[in-house]
What we know:
CATH topology: Rossmann fold
CATH class: Alpha Beta
Number of helices: 15
Shape: globular
Order of helices and strands: EEHEHHHEHEHHHHEHHEHEHHH
Structural class: alpha/beta
Distance between the termini: 44 Å
Number of domains: 1
CATH superfamily: Nicotinate-nucleotide-dimethylbenzimidazole phosphoribosyltransferase (CobT), large domain
Amino acid sequence: MQKSYLGIKLFGSKVNQKLFSERVDALQKEINNFIFYLVIAGTETSQIQGISAAGINSKARRRTALADAEFLLFGASKDHKYKLPFLNAGVTPALISYVCRKLICAIPIVVPIGIKEEPYFSHLTVENNLVGPAKCLTTGKSMNKERVLSLYKKGLEIGKSTKQPIFISESVPGGTTTAQAVMEAFGLNVNNLIGSSLIDAPRTLKTKVIKAGLLKANLKNNFDSLDVISSVGDPFQAFSLGLLIGARLANQSVVLSGGSQMLAVIVLALEFIDSKEKQEFIDLVFIATTGWLVKDNLLGDLLDLITEKHNVNLLGLASPLNFKSSKFKELSDYEIGYVKEGVGAGGMSILAFLKGFSNEEIVSRCQVNLERMKELGQISLNKDC
């Protein structure tokens, strides 16, 4: 039976109820202190046809992350610059994140990496925007090692200097594929455990793409996490690895809000640090996601696979948010498996619940904002953009 506390559900099998309750209580006390990061990153892996639903086609996916970040910051606005991409079903999870971040008074810091275009809104610059996205992982040379090391060091420096707990979220089209690739590089058999923004994960396509990338990467003995990111990873992973390790060195709690992409960062960290420090490192790290993503138990199985390999107890939290009562198709689509997670939706909604807001209030506000974004033409109606 799935454990729950204050409405929040636990996934993964190694954490007991007492520890679960204690950690959630600690998380609840820190809500008002978090620094919120949204890392938006680009990888040419997203341009592979059929690999991602974060945009109807490859052209749309190039601006998905920018549109997500803009919506997270400003919500439905007549002054929007980026149209949210047309989706076959559902609506961007940035809608959930925006509603919940307003409820908990969170002010996110957007970190664009490899987006090509400099955002007009306030953001944290960690490298020149002209560097562009990572290459497709099929090349086995996603990024040069110098770039990976630079992004890691930037994240590490920011993390080590923080005096508050941090919350990391992402918008990375194609990111579940690069996440799977880095985990498989370390020998984890995760093909049947990694989901997708698509209702039916394109597992055969992902396997083919990752196999090609790892073959070309030809990783030698004694490779490390930075080598793996350089070969088949993405910019989000390099920066977030440093940010996570740095924050833990500063003895701060870290919420990784997402699914397999966040677990990939955990794997990279656990493979990078000294084995004697692993449990202490993981003690104040939370994986926070939506209930839709854990519905089939695959994410829990993936978490268990990682914790068993590294002999650690990692806490997985699933939000109780649901759209069963919604009459809006874009929202009810979440209930049948579309979209599922992204832009920190799971973690943001968990914090909103822990602050006392109800499912009904969150759903109502999502519906109001959805209506407004449609009225303002903020969702593209053109399948070609």
